[in-house]
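Look over this record as teaching material.
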Amino acid sequence: MNSKASGYREKATRHFKIIINKDRCKGCSYCVDFCTKGVLAMGEETNAKGYYLPAVVKGNECVGCGLCEEICPDFAIRVVDLDGETGSG
């Protein structure tokens, strides 16, 4: 059956990018712990203060929920909608 004929609308895939401010991050791992999709993991890279930084390990699986942004006590992480749409995923 044709999806247009049945009234079924296919969900568009949106793309997101996670930006980590290395200078602000203190390696608390909240963003890693609370990511429901496992997009982030603690990495081996450290910042100037010696804190281990989170790394994006499954960037293509990010749904743009913004929970990592909301949970970060130091405002060190942002989720950017690469498709330019507004609203959360």
The chain has a mean pLDDT of 88. The beta strands are 16-20, 40-46, 52-56, 77-81. DSSP finds three helices and four strands in the chain.
